[in-house]
Amino acid sequence: MWKITIFRGITMRRMIFAVLAFLLTSQIAWSDDKNTAKELLTNNIEAALAVLQKKDINQQEKKEQVIKIAEPIFDFHLMAKLALGRKYWQDLSDKNREKFVDLFVAKLKATYVDKLSFYTDQKIAYETPVQKGIKIYIPTKVVSKDNSFAMLFKLYKSSNTWKIYDIEIEGVSLISTYRSQFYDILSKGTIDDLLLKLEKPETK
Question: In terms of DSSP bridges, do strands 135-143 and 130-132 run parallel, antiparallel, or are they unpaired?
Answer without folding.
Answer: antiparallel
